[in-house]
Amino acid sequence: MRRYIKLYCLLAGAYVRSRLQYRLSFGFMCFGIVISEACLLGLLGALLAKFRTVNGWTWAEVVFLYGLGNLAYSLMRILGSQLDDFDRYIIRGELDGVLIKPVAPLFYILASRVELVHVSRALTSVVIFVVAFHLTGIRWTVEVALFTLTTILSGTLIMLTLMLVSATVALWTTKSGKLTDLLISATKEATAFPISIYPLAVQLLLTFILPVAFVTYYPAQQLLQKGEFLGMPESFQFGAPVVALAMVCISYLFWYSGLRRYHSTGS
Amino acid sequence: MMKKYLTFTTKAFQRTLTYRFELWMELFINVLFMLVYVYLWKALYTGQTSVEGYDLNGILTYIVVSQTLLTFTFTLRVARIIEEKVRTGEVVTDLMKPIDFQLMTLATAAGTSSHTALFNMLPKFLLFYGAFGLSLPPSLLTVLLFIISVVLGYVILFSMEFIIGIFAFWLVEIRGIYALVIWGLSMLFSGYFLPLEFYPAFLAKVAAVLPFRAIIYFPTAIYTGQLIGERLITAMLIQLAWVAVLIGLGRLGYRAAFRKLVIQGG
Question: What are the chain B neighbours of A170 within 8 Å (beta carbons)?
């Protein structure tokens, strides 16, 4: 275990240092992310200035959802950006090199790229989230803080494992292109609004197949006391950690079976 | 003269055909995205009949058309391709060819994008058109003007990406500027998410001086019949002006970059 922690710091540190060689582009990237986040918030603002509520959710509550989802998303981006263009490993045959290293391949892949530029997104999300938290009138207590923290961590894991599943597809198809990126953006978008606005099929999809409803919507039921359960069990509001754990197991099994049948592209 | 550029277009078109699975998945995810927005607007319109001149059917038509046009924004990879070419040095072979670099890039992009238009945008639009009973443009002439406006908007988007790509000659990495312009400003001011009529006054004013609304808002508003008569003509003239300005800036940029490259290569 200690070896792995040390190794993680070593690999991640090497990547971070290499990125920091180009300070200007690093700065630009952070700036770009912050501005684009601000622009998206501007859009939400323009929308809700006109309409006040979405399906009974106030503007503060929607921003709350948005901030929560974005926080999980940015943490996932910091830790799992390497999965984004995972197919590169297969197309260029780099995976072969990873497989002969004396560490777990997935560990090595994740550790070799820790994307610090997304810290800027995370910080922006924290600000948005805290402001929305305040506006919705939730009181800070120890329980609320713990619940929020668990929710954010579970949300990060849910998004990370979804990304892993989508990246793993490339072990069969060789090329997954922008698939992973698109899928994650789509699901992130879907978490920004209460899923009660969608038809049943989409609600089921976001609850059971791409379970991102557990990143924002269900936990928000507990924090905002909305009492919307769409006919699902009320215990779903506490379901995020369970779903995250299940997703970790499923995605790892999927990854593992993908690796077992993997044979090099041979070029 | 035109023929050699058309070769780039057809080659790019054919190249895109090879990745079938990827394209199907892309389409599936795009549909998911659009569903999110369609249902969001349905929820927003409960209890309202008309907002800023858009009834429910009008707004859904607007959203589906603008979301369909947005496909160009996230499938066009001109900036990334130029960056890659600069980083690997492949750009040198392009510059040696007896062709115009900008036109060649445009011709290649047009090949990929016409594939996108035919096999992604059109089916997606027809699906939503049928499922949600959207409206068609008021007349055949509008259809024609809409198509011209879409093409002009596309060239504007291309020129922006081209300029961003050219920055790669000076910066190692352009993802920051790309995120800033395409994922930030363009998203906010192109009108893809909601019609510009809905914007608060000051945001609408900013949008009016920027080129982004010419990419999505103009063609979409022509389709829905919001822009007619004199305002339609003005809109298309504005589009033409932006095409001229941005293509011109791109040319200046790439000439400067080319000169710089010669110095480095010496």
Answer: none
Query: Dmax of chain A from CA atoms?
Result: 59
Q: What is the pLDDT of residues A86-135, one digit of tens each?
A: 888 888 888 888 888 888 889 988 988 888 889 999 999 999 999 988 88
First-to-final CA distance of chain A: 36
In chain B, the largest separation of any two C-alpha atoms, in whole Å, equals 69
Q: What is the pLDDT of residue A154?
A: 96
CA distance A142 to chain B (A): 34
Interface of A with B in 45-64 (CB under 8 A): 46-47, 49-51, 54-55
CB-based contact A25 B44, cutoff 8 Å: no
pTM of the predicted protein model: 0.87
* Contact residues, chain B, for A176 at CB < 8 Å: 22
Answer yes or no: do B36 and A42 touch at CB < 8 A: no
> Could you tell me which residues come within 8 angstroms of residue B265 by beta carbon, excluding any fewer than 6 positions away?
B92
Distance between CA atoms of B25 and A166, rounded to whole angstroms?
Answer: 11
Beta bridge partners of A57: A54
| Residue in B26, B51, B171 closest to A50 by CB | B51
How far, in Å, CA of A248 to CA of A259, rounded?
Answer: 16
Q: What is the pLDDT of residues B1-20, one digit of tens each?
A: 678 888 888 888 888 777 67
Q: Which helix (H) or strand (E) holds B256?
A: helix B229-265
Q: Does B128 touch chain A (CB under 8 A)?
A: no
Cross-chain Cβ contact B175/A199 below 8 Å: no
Distance CA B253, CA B232 (A): 31
The dihedrals phi and psi of A57, each to the nearest 5 degrees, come to: -95, 130
DSSP string, B184-242: IIHHHHS-SSS-GGGS-HHHHHHHHHSGGGGTTHHHHHHHHTSS-HHHHHHHHHHHHHH
The tens digit of pLDDT for each residue in A176-203 reads 666 777 788 877 888 888 999 888 988 9
Q: Is B50 helix (H, G, I), strand (E, B) or coil?
A: strand
B43 in Cβ contact with A198 (< 8 Å): no
Instruction: Return the domain boundaries, chain B.
Output: 2-6+75-112+134-265
3-state secondary structure A196-260: HHCCHHHHHHHHHHCCHHHCCHHHHHHHHCCCCCCCCCHHHHHCHHHHHHHHHHHHHHHHHHHHH
> What gap in Å lies between CA B176 and CA A115, rounded to an integer?
13
- Is B64 an 8 Å CB contact of chain A? no
- pLDDT at residue B264 tops 60: no
Dist CA A241 CA A163 (whole Å): 17
Distance (Å, whole) CA A225 – CA B6: 60
Report CA torsion sign: B227, B181, B193, A49: negative
Contact A118, A72 (CB under 8 A): no
Beta bridge mates, A58: A53
